[in-house]
Amino acid sequence: MELTKVNEALNFYLHPQTFPVAVKMVSSAEEVPKKARQPLRDLGVPMPTCQGIALTRRYGWVMAMGKEDVYCPIGAVTLGFIPPMSKFMNGSFAVPNWLEDKEVRRKVIENAQV
Q1: Integer Cα distance of 85 and 77 in angstroms
Q2: What is the C-alpha to C-alpha distance for residues 32 and 42, in angstroms, rounded to an integer?
Q3: N or C terminus of the chain: which is more exposed, having fewer CB within 10 Å?
Q4: Using CA atoms, how far apart are residues 46 and 23, in angstroms rounded to an integer?
Q5: Domain range annotation of the chain
Q6: Do residues 73 and 49 touch, judged by C-beta distance below 8 A?
Q7: Distance of alpha carbon 56 from its chain centroid, rounded?
Q8: What are the Cα distances from residue 7, in Å, to 19, 20, 81?
């Protein structure tokens, strides 16, 4: 099925309030589309992966995120940019206020494992 037909069907049946998002993993910088925005280079800040995806959903931007662009250890490990260290797996890593409890962090990581 052509992507335009998929888009038409989604808009007809679902009426989404945001753009649909697809994720593509690339192995080299040459594979990144020229129009892609990178958080650190183009916006001046690294950011969590979820915020990069949110920018794509809300504004329809093509985003490219490499190791230097990702602020959150959960996103960096999930995408394979860095290997998980023991302090990450047991929940003793530091993150912003939204996950203050060590046991909650450990459970989030445990449940995020593929």
Answers
A1: 9
A2: 14
A3: C
A4: 18
A5: 3-83
A6: no
A7: 10
A8: 10, 9, 31
What confidence score (pLDDT) does residue 113 get? Answer: 58
Chunked mean pLDDT (size 10), the chain, 114 residues: 86 88 90 96 93 94 92 77 78 66 76 62
Q: Report in angstroms the alpha-carbon separations of 23 from 63, 65, 79.
A: 10, 11, 11
- Write the CB contacts of 47 (distance below 8 Å, at least 6 apart in sequence): 39, 69, 70, 71, 72
- Cα–Cα distance, 18 to 7 (Å, whole number): 12
Place of tokens 């998002």: 21
Task: Read off the tokens for 63.
Answer: 């985003």
Query: The tokens 């069907």 sit on which residue?
Result: 9
Q: What is the pTM of this model?
A: 0.68
Residue bearing tokens 């490990």: 77
Assess contact for 10 and 20: CB atoms under 8 A.
yes
